[in-house]
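Deviations from the work plan: none for this task. Representative record:
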Amino acid sequence: MTEEIRIGVFICHCGINIGGVVDVPAVVEYASSLEKVVHAERNLYTCSSEGLESIKSAIKEHNLNRVVVASCTPRTHEPLFRATCKEAGLNPYLFEFVNIRDQCSWVHMHEPESATEKAKDLVRMGVAKAARLEPLEELTSDVIPTAVVIGAGISGMTAALSLARNGFSVHLIEKEREIGGMLRKLYKLYPTDEPAEEFLERRIKAVKDHERITLHLSSTIKAVEGYVGKFKVILDENGVEQTIDAGVIIVATGAKEFEPVGLYEYDGENVITQLQLEEKLKKGDLNWAAIKNVVMIQCAGARGEVLGYCSKICCMNAIKNAKLIKEAHPDINVFIAHNELQAYGEEYELYYRDAKKAGVRFLRFPLEQRPKVRKSDGKLIVDVFHERMQLPIPFEADLVVLSAPLVQNPDALQLSKLLKVPLGQDKFFFEAHVKLRPVDFATDGIFLCGTAHGPKDIGESIAQGYAAASRATIPLAKGYVRSEPIISSVNEELCAGCGICESVCPYGAIEVVEVEEDKKRARVTGVKCKGCGTCGSSCIKRAIKMYHFSDDQLIAQERAALPTEVIS
Amino acid sequence: MRADCRMEKITEIINRTKAYYCVECGKCTSACPLSRFGDYSPDRVVERTLIGLPVRPDLRIWSCLTCGRCKEVCTYGVDYPEFIRRIRSVAKGEKEQGICAHGELFSVMRLLTRQSETPQKRLYWVSEDLMVRDKGDMLYFTGCLPYFDIVFRDLGVHTVEIARSTVKILNKLDVVPVVMNDEVCCGHDLYWNGEIETFKRLAAINIQNIARRGAKKVIFSCPEGYRTFKLDYPEFFDLDFELVHISEFLAEQLDEGKIDFRTIDEPVTYHDPCRLGRHLGVYDAPRRVISTIAPNFVEMASNRENSLCCGTAGWTNCDSFSEEIRGERLKECSDTGAQMMITSCPKCLIHFKCHMSNRKGDYDLEIVPFEVFVARAMGLVK
Amino acid sequence: MSEKSVLVIGGGVAGMQAAFDLAEAGIKVCLVEKTLSIGGRMAQLDKTFPTNDCAICILAPKMMDCYRHENIEVLTFSEVISVEGEVGSFKVKILRRPRFVDAELCNGCGDCARVCPMGILNRFDMDLRVRGGAYIPFLQAVPLIYALDREKCMRCGLCKVVCGKDAIRFDQKPELVERSVGAIIVAIGFDPLDPSGITEYGYGKYDNVLTALEYERLICAAGPTGGHVMRTDGKEVRSIAWIQCVGARDTRDNRPYCCSVCCMHATKEAILTKEHYPEVGTSILYTDLRCFGKGFQEYVNRAKDDYGVVYIRGKPSEIREKENRNLEIFYSPASDKVEKLEVDMVVLCTALIPSEGVEMLAQILGIELDGYKFFKLKDPYNPTETTRAGIFVAGYCQAPRDIPECIAHGSAAASRAMEVVLGGSDDRRD
């Protein structure tokens, strides 16, 4: 860097948030005394239009080529100040944010003197780093206006239809020979009691009819290359290899029912699962004349028995099947043995009440004393410990139905590796943020919906399908993606191609590739990189530089943190 | 586990009273006055019935006070008092019954359904200073007041004073009520003890007699009679007359400015009878009247919908727990600092007086019937 | 051809997410918010379950992104008063209520608030804190523009004197603006029920019975007590009980439904309490513990095993106040038991119900409500479609759901709106 570094420092009062504790004028004076600082000022609210104007005019007037703002938190205000610098003609990455509110005045509000000293230290550190900042350009990448949706169950079909209606081509990939997913196995749906087949048919027709949706049946994913905007999805379509170029990918691979082998005398004949029951109901396979008592057992294999989580839908599903059986055969006794009954929300609580009105009876057991199924004289008996009455009660059962949880598909692990997206502890795909980004993956351009994300009902699967479509439409509609240039970069001369960085990267942004014959080096795909620094800190050769957080910048900051007496 | 042929009847009861909505949250049991003091659990009876476990014979189905606290607090819509009443009538059909204190009263009620050569001397309390008549628009249904006065004379309940006060009040308001000598018991106690057929016979007699008198409106001083006519008779019969409780009637008159009361300074409190309060929702009318007379009216800790029962209903299974409940209620009264507890139900009056007579000297308070209280304030009685 | 813009009514998480997705896809959005700031109910929370993220910390960046987005026009303190037209081309009239402060000039310095002599209960803090007549609802409000309380302001003029920007405008009038949009998304959230009518629990009568949102403000570090749980009599709080389903799953007031989030909300509040005060006893009295979401069962396990939160199954019938202002809770944990639990403080997890004014809005929009005043869906499996083409619904106002579900729902509504605006769909509802 040959040009003279001219740093401007703006210290914010933030009303009394900072100014009420930190002696801002003193910090300004101190900042002025630092090397390379040619301008220091204080603002009441740097983020106000007044403050921003002040930054812009200072940049022009004092020819600033680095800006430090010492105020609140970059989480909310960094984009604002960067944009301000940009407006004044300064590269937005020549801006450094120092937090003297959350990290200073707020936590040391009873020690104004120490807080002021700390604020000075923090500013000094910020200035030290700012001096070493380099201009960076945002990366822009085109987006192919095509989407790939993996999984043609209800959420995948919904996502595909929505995207298609928005004007984009969609490749809908399904590993089975027919589309429809788990809905194909269902008998009737709650809370409307409508037949699943009719429900599905309408939607399948819409998908098949839509000109912009290309269906790939009997297809599995072999490989995925590329990054947001430019994915290459390589399929095995019924034995033939296909390559699809797409801008976005949506994972909608669904889930399957847990098989409660070894639990509750499960035998698939007299002790069956809810899905097996649905199949039998659909086919009319049950000998109703021989059935007087049906007992359903909730949480079979879930909530601490084999699996830890609650599968959300089993209670309502059992209630639905129980109600249907009771309505069709009022003389049969139908019991549901449950623990915490998940009939949440508006409709489900009401549907639960309807089931009770229809005559389904509920037995509550404690989780520590789950029901036991035994055979006695060729009959099945379910021993239920009645929690409220604190009584064990035996129930004769001609049919026992186990409500087993949904679990991740066995091939999900493979898919997660191909896409480089994570699975959670419960093995379902893990979203970018459990609260705020339920249908995004941390990796840009890949989205998630339906039961692949976790157990959920049809309404929610459809909502998530739409949601994923909405999120996917953003890059598709824009036609480009822009990403922050705070990324890593590999010095190929130092790199040994060991692959540690690739193995630790959470975003699949760095890969070891063969750059020449017998020469492997790590390469970063800038658009995928989030600048988390994991690769940089793992590199044993120190071959990786983190832009905007380079070693020399950070070391300068660290050194600036220590009092000058310590460092010679 | 068996399939009981009586299951059909039980299932019908479950459906009618919506007992199937029970989620076993236990709110009823913790609200139940009996459960607080003794071994009774409304939800256990319902749960057993829902699963098909036998609830009979079990004396505890007769213990329920039918006070309605459970129904009041239940957020799932289960009508437990009605549930237990119907279970009782199935039980009665199987010749089971509870332990009835003062069971001879039931014999009297049953006798009244028969034509007798010995007519009742029911109107002995009508003294010369009272104006009554035989036919007219407004009829005063006296209920069992004349009988209670005699049967419980040792407790000093003086229930006929309730009747006298009521008539005096009505007279003062220019109403000359009809009273019937051939009035029979409203049937409340039999109804709640499962004896439906006898109840229906009594009802038929009353309705016929009232019709013969040309009454358009029937006024009650007894909440049980009022409730029975209002909610239970219509299940079997059509009624061509309106029904009102004396407290409601007085509140109306008060609103229209037709009454002058002598006020008193002492603090008084009011005990909501279950049949008037929770069963019929009449909480405000008596309070408006009482607080006009006694501006220092205070509420007990459990009042209105949360009111405590007087501890016995329909004379059945009156036991030590009933006594504890009554004790609790009277303690609430003394906690308010009031020395007068007003109630508009003769049964409550009898039960509290009985309790107090068992514990002479323990209580420094007076139980006053609402009608007597009002009549005093109107200067009609001492 | 549709108007290439969408109206979003409601600036909570669902509305903001919908607006953001649309804006990012190049569609212009007008986001109308009734109160002075966007952020909605999540801004009132301290932390969110099951991650225990600081609510405002993760929300504020979203609020800023929304406000600053070039395609989003945020109109706060505004209400939609009429809608005409049809899908593809709605004409909307919006009433902008006067802040009595010039929004262009105000820099959010707060000097006016500091001199204002009025003391008014702050609704954002569930009436637990007093604000001035010149105020912003909370510190991180977006936009950070002050307002004068229209009803209680005395026009003393002190604010006008101190305002360095001369931004006070006593004579500011309401403004009517019109927008043309292709689609509308309703995301107006919910209100907490006032449990005064549920007399058995003594809310409003007893000092130490609070609602869950009130407790949330107490335990929030940015709340009225700086995160200290305290009683009005100053006595130390050593035990707290949460009561679930207050006014919900309740046929007595026509609210037989479940509000979906309260079991987890109580669990979170109990965990936070234990984090602040490990010695305080925390009990949750519930009927059915609704722990169905991602990570919820694990969260409850943590509450029980790691934090010692006690879960008691049993709905209390009564709460009584003792002389020392402690509360006595009567409940039945098993058929043959009635027990009394004495605690220093009771938190009622009340029902969360459709907002006040929902009927009026439904009428203005020409869409139907169901029997419980949630917006009615045309088809139960198309969770964002109202009964009128081109108008979509997102979030809690359609049915009880938690934050991630509201956000997904917001995106879902956005995608339907995109179909209308980008795809030219006429959203025909047969």
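Chain C has two domains: 6-97+174-189+355-429, 194-351.
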